[in-house]
Amino acid sequence: MNKKRSLGRGLSSLIPEAKEVDQEGKIIKVSLDKIKPREGQPRKNFDQKGLEDLARSIKEYGLLNPISLSKVDDHYEILAGERRFRASKINGATEIEAIIKDYEDKDIEILSLIENVQREDLSSIEEASAYKKLYEKYKLTQDQIAEKMGKSRSYIANTMRLLKLEEDEKEALNKGEISSSQARSLLSLKDEEDRKKALDDYKNKKTVVREVEELSRAKAEEKKTETIQAEKVEAKKGPDKANEKHKGKYLDLSKDNKEAVSYTHLTLPTTPYV
Fold it and tell me: b or e along 56-85 (b: 16 or more beta carbons within 10 Å of the residue's beta carbon)?
């Protein structure tokens, strides 16, 4: 009896059962010439030194995990494992161990995103972009994404927040000049100059997250105090402005008064008109 391959944690509940193209779901060797990277992969940047390190590791210890492929016409597209694919090419290999998976087109991208996040060394921004795509394009909630990834909901939410960073801040994060927690703390600063200074201080090791968070709280409290004071001033001005607006427009309606007289309040005569 053929055994179904497990999709890994949470994947089988998200994606319909796949048909294995190779016999009984075994690992097979595929020519590198027949493999192409798939468009829309979450990884956008490949560090050359990292690839060379991986290539040396594969050369010494072998490929510990096969890559995942899908059959497209006369070639294969990578679902997960592009770094391993590239490292194998650096080693001069002509083929690579792979598992071929046949899914509906609409499910392939979801599987690719999830497997890449689970198995590949993505940057924080690449990981956040993958979560955003699952959230926006495939309408998965943060709770559902967390379940599939084996992460907490707060981890997913905090990672996605990194996409709100400015481009120079994202660049610093991708280069490893600042950490994810430092990057998130920048989002709490509303003043542009404060934010730029904090980024520079992080890069030059002159500050820590706690200090930036304290600055953010102080700025928020200062803004709150200013708002309250402004509201109090406006509240005091309110009645005076109303009186100024209507001053000189009230008339004494008593019978004997022949002139228009300004009053702050309108007073009706005590005796009826005849």
Answer: eebeeeebeebbbbbeeeeebbbbbbbbbb
Q: Per residue in 237-255, pLDDT tens?
A: 665 554 554 555 544 555 5
Burial of 185 (0-12, 13-18, 19+ CB in 10 A): buried
If one compares 44 and 80, the residue with the highest pLDDT of the two is 80
What is the structure's pLDDT at 122? 81
Quick check: is 82 catalytic?
Answer: yes
E-state strands within the chain: 19-20, 28-31, 35-36, 67-72, 75-80, 95-102
Q: Could you tell me the CA-to-CA distances from 248 to 243, 251, 258, 264 in Å, in that order?
A: 10, 8, 16, 8
State the catalytic residue, choosing from 39, 60, 82, 169.
Answer: 82
pLDDT (tens digit per residue) in 180-203: 999 999 998 888 998 999 999 998
> What is the distance between the alpha carbons of residues 127 and 121, in angstroms, rounded to a whole number?
9
What tokens appear for 32 in the block?
């590198």
More confident residue, 155 or 26: 155
| CA distances to 53, 77, 186, 203 from 91, in Å | 11, 20, 41, 36
Tell me the whole-structure pTM to 2 decimals: 0.59
Under 8 Å between Cβ of 157 and 180: no
- Give the CA distances from residue 193 to residues 52, 161, 186, 197, 199, in Å, rounded to whole numbers and listed in that order: 40, 21, 11, 6, 10
Helix 105-119 vs helix 142-149: angle between axes, to the nearest 10 degrees?
Answer: 60
Give the number of other Cβ atoms within 10 Å of residue 199's Cβ: 23
CATH number 3.90.190.20 is the correct assignment for the domain at 7-104+115-120: no
- Where do the structural domains in the chain lie, given as residue ranges? 7-104+115-120, 242-274
